[in-house]
Amino acid sequence: MLLSELIKDWPCTVLQGSIRQTIRGLSESSARIEKGYIFVVRKGRRLDGAEYMEEALENGANTIIIDRTNLDLSRIPTDVTVLVVPDSSLFISYASAKLSGYPGEELTIIAVTGTNGKTTVSHFIGQMLQTVGKSVAIIGTTGIYVNGKLYKTIEDSLTTMPAETLHPLLRECAERGVTHVILEASSLGLEGNRLAHCPIAIGILLNIGVDHYEEHGGKESYIRAKKRLFTLSKKMIVNEDDLLCFEIGKEMTVPPIYFGQNHINGEQQTLEIRIAGKHNEINARAACCALNALGYTIDEIQPLVSSLCLPAGRMQKQSQHGIDVYVDYAHTPDALQVVLAALHDEEKNILTVFGCGGERDRDKRPQMGAIAAQYSSHVIVTSDNPRSEEPAQIILDILCGTTGFSTPIDVFINRKYAIRYAIRKAQYGDIVLVAGKGHEQTQQIGNDILPFSDVEEVKHALNERNSDNDYS
Asked: Full-prediction pTM beyond 0.85?
């Protein structure tokens, strides 16, 4: 596409060069730039694209997009076009959609946001739509699934992928005959305009917790990011049992559709949901509400619910030696509490292994320590993804919340050893919960991203225990 065609409906100012450039693609990452690409300079939370302009030019960029006029452009060759736009992130979204031929308009797109439950609800909706004969793609934390099979993993494990990769993927989906796409919409993705030019038929607001307050600079900014989904969606579905969500729903000019523990679309509905945990019953109701909003009756939806199954890393169970081991992604206070409450209903001893991620909301650490100590018979505190923080300090923050509880607590900085210790310690009839990482296949320690899977480590630990018993 010619640059002149791409920008004809977008406000911009030409600082240098020709708008007759032929554009083959665009990116905000200099490493992904190829010959004939636009390099979009965007200032992020940690990095500034302005520092990578030379690398982008070396890789073949013929156009530079900026949204600031105070940048030094003296080293940009005169045959390279430079444009100023009001907002680089919005331009990326707009241009990506246009270069891909607006594929979202050929699809029915459902976007799910919330602190907890996005992945589960997305997969529940996908499973039910498949059962009624629709071709479905799910794009989110655990990867990209087409009709229930893993199609691709998501780069950098982003919950909501950047617009520059989302729209080409939507084009692939449309060409593969997909009719419905379910997206996980993170607060950071919404705030960063990743979905700004993605036509959303139905948006779903599940809940609002504390996990990302710090990343957004406070509670109000986090809530404001979530509210963006209302402006992008033709219809909104809101959890009436979450007070914050309910209050946000009342602010909207177009009233949302509500669901709750006993209600779907404002009417009391009894559904036979056979999934462990009250939180997953709520997740199933949210999914049912989405199908209802698509035009399916409750009578048509009810038979679909009985075959729902949880996605990878959500209450994923392995059992040996009379011990049940669950791996769950619960990495927020709310999520940990609902998972432990669900397991607590079984009236068995619970050994909980968990940690907290580095460079994330610090206030949640003692809260999660208290929740683990309250519901567990034994707590093993360990590392999650410490990133650049000192793992021992994160653990100390967690332990601050465990004071006042008589629950035995052990500490293993090494997560592998923590998992193996818990499974060795467990007795016949006990439950072990390994929480925090779920489906993840890596662990980030400092700048190193190392292979690590809770599911695989549990499997190894159970096999080790079996070997030990063979010689006992």
From this structure: yes
